Amino acid sequence: MPPLDEIKKTAMINLSKLPEKHKKLKNAAEYSVEISPELRKLTLNLNKKLKRKL
User: Fold this and answer.
1) 7-25, pLDDT tens digit by residue?
2) What is the number of alpha carbons within 13 Å of residue 9 lying toward its C-beta?
3) How far apart are the C-alpha atoms of 6 and 10, rounded to whole Å?
């Protein structure tokens, strides 16, 4: 794992690349979020495995 200072630096660089409208905490712009088919499949498979263990 990289040192904390390096993680902070990388986070700041990545945040600086975001448009301002996506950094706002108040009156933030709304945007749609969707679950990808791959993530949906992964979640279903994980739930099946967990149910088998119970």
Assistant:
1) 999 999 999 999 888 888 8
2) 5
3) 6
